User: Fold this.
Amino acid sequence: MTGYTNKSADTGLRPRCYAAIIIALVLFGLLFGRLTPYFWTQLALSAAALGVVAVLLERKPMLTAFRDEGGPGIVRTILIGLTSAAALYVVFLIGNAASRALFSFGAPQIDAVYGLGVTTPRWVIAVLLILVVGPCEEIFWRGYVQRRLTAEFGLPGLVVSVLAYGAAHIVTLNFMLIMAALVCGTFWALQYYLFRSVRTNMISHAAWASAIFVFFPMR
Assistant:
C-alpha cells in the first residue's frame, strides 16, 4: 500500500514519535511497576492520555485516520473487527491451554494477569475496555505510532511498532503477558496494515479485550 511504502517528506516528525513511545513506556512502567486496586481505571487513564498525545502531535493526520478515509465501509468495519476479535480469541484459547500444560510458570503467570484490579466491578472493567482502553490504544499504537514509523521506514517500521508495544509490558516481568502483548501487537499491526482502518482495529481490540477479561475469561 502506498501509504506504507513511501517515506514521509517531513522527517522532523520522527523525533516526536520516538518521544511519544518513551511517554508510553513510562506510563506503562508506572502502571505495572506499582500495581494498585485501581489498575483498570489507571489503565484507562493511561490509554486516554496516549490517545490525546497522538492527536496533539499530528492532529490533521490523526483525524483523517480516525475518519477511516479509504477504509472499509461501516458494515465491513464492524464485521471485520468482530471476526478478527473472535479469531484472536481462539488463538489465545489454544495458547492458554498449551501454556498451562507445557510450562510450569504458565498457569501462575496467566492467573496473575486475571488478578489485576480484582476489586473493580466487572461491568466497570467492560465499559473501560470497550469505550476507552481498546479505542485509545489503537489510536495511539496503530493509528499514530505504526502509521508514522511505516511512513518513515516501511515494513521495518511496523516491526518496530510491534516491539515497542511489547516492550511496554516488560516491566511486569511476566513472560506470558509479554508474549500475549507481542501476539496481539502483531495481529493488530497486520490488520491495520491490510485494511488501514483504525475503526476496525478499535472494534477488534475492544471486543477481544472485553471477551477475554470479562465475558469469557480463560481461568
